[in-house]
Specification:
Distance between the termini: 18 Å
Structural class: alpha+beta
Helix content: 25-40%
Bound molecules: zinc ion
Strand content: 5-15%
Radius of gyration: 13 Å
Shape: globular
Number of domains: 1
Order of helices and strands: EEEEHHH
Strand order of the largest sheet: 1-2
Number of strands: 4
Length: 91
């Protein structure tokens, strides 16, 4: 996908997780899969969000962070997000 194994991609929103941005678990540890925007205390912050909405929202953030067009970000995320752990099972 991104070809970079040692960077963490949130398995919900598809964006890179910086070192201190992992979602907290109820036992005080941190999730290895999800960022703190998506996940907190063992639960998703928006359990009912649809995949399409997540793709659009992430595309806006990614476009800002990576200074690419929203269209390019959308194209990447439309491929990436359906393969992530959170979405794979339902789609
Ligand atoms: Zn996330």
């Amino acid at each position: 996908m991104w070809g970079i194994q040692d960077e963490y991609i949130c398995q919900s929103c598809g964006l890179l997780i910086e070192d201190d941005k992992f979602g907290p678990e109820p036992d005080g540890t941190y999730s290895e899969d999800y960022c703190q925007v998506c996940y907190e205390e063992g639960e998703f912050n928006e359990p009912t969000i649809r995949m399409e909405d997540m793709i659009e929202r992430s595309a806006r953030k990614m476009a800002e962070e990576m200074e690419i067009s929203e269209e390019d970000a959308l194209k990447k995320l439309e491929k990436l997000i359906p393969t992530l752990k959170r979405w794979k099972e339902t789609w």
